[in-house]
Amino acid sequence: MGSFDGIVDLLTILPFFYLSGFVAFRMLRVVRIFHLFRINAYYDSFNVITSVLYEKKNQIISSIFIIMILMLASSLCMYSAEHDAQPLVFKNGFSGIWWSISTILTVGYGDIYPITVLGRAMAIIIAFLGVGVVAIPTGIISAGFVERYTQVRMNKKEMITVSKKIQSSSPLMKRKIKDIEEEKRWNIIVVIREGNVVIVSENMILKEGDVIVYQREE
């Protein structure tokens, strides 16, 4: 009863007993949103999102740092180009931060904009750079999701262990272990030769009478 889920359930049902009572108790209905976390506990979607963000945190932080540098640099450049023409709008080097955010993030509110030829030319260049820079974290996260789902799908594949004796007519005769693994997509664990377990190496050549123990997808 004292667990997190128990407290959430308690706060969820309390408004039922105070429908006509205190407003504070009726506001506790908002606590029901915490049930979403319980739903996510039974699915891997939330875990995939958190794991991808954690694994790619260094790349994401680096890309955000690049975006911040671009915002600051564009604000200073726009101040140099527009201060004389719009002294009330671009008062100092940091007054163009709002403009740089709306431009780089392709929002374009239009409340602050350049009016000089140099300022507009710089705005075009900054807008193009913004499209490319903002796309960096999106690409990083998308690639992380692809890698994660590929890894999850590979882990879900069941492997079975099989043993096979090499006969004189077998196509595996006199072939290297690494060539067989690449062609058959097997994972050869051990080779039993003349009753002895032989350590597997990539360049080992199979002989007649060898017994290979390998894993393959079911």
Q: On the 0-100 scale, what is the average pLDDT? A: 79
Uncertain spans? none
In terms of DSSP E residues, the strand content is 5-15%
- Which oligomerization state do the chains in this entry correspond to? single chain
The third-level CATH topology of the largest domain is Helix Hairpins
In spatial order, strands of the major sheet run 1-4-2-3
Q: What helical percentage do the residues reach? A: 40-55%
Short description, anyone?
With 218 residues, this protein is of the alpha+beta class. It is built from eight helices and four strands.
Question: What can you tell me about this protein's structure?
Answer:
Helix 4 packs across helix 7, helix 5 packs across helix 6 and helix 5 packs antiparallel against helix 7 (117-156). A hairpin with a 2-residue loop joins strand 2 and strand 3 (196-198). It is built from eight helices and four strands. It has three domains: 4-42, no CATH class; 55-155, Helix Hairpins (Orthogonal Bundle); 159-217, Alpha-Beta Plaits (2-Layer Sandwich), CATH 3.30.70. The two termini are 45 Å apart. The model has no long low-confidence stretch (mean pLDDT 79). With 218 residues, it is of the alpha+beta class. The chain has a four-stranded antiparallel β-sheet, with no helix packed on it. It is elongated, with a radius of gyration of 32 Å. The longest helix has 40 residues, at 117-156.
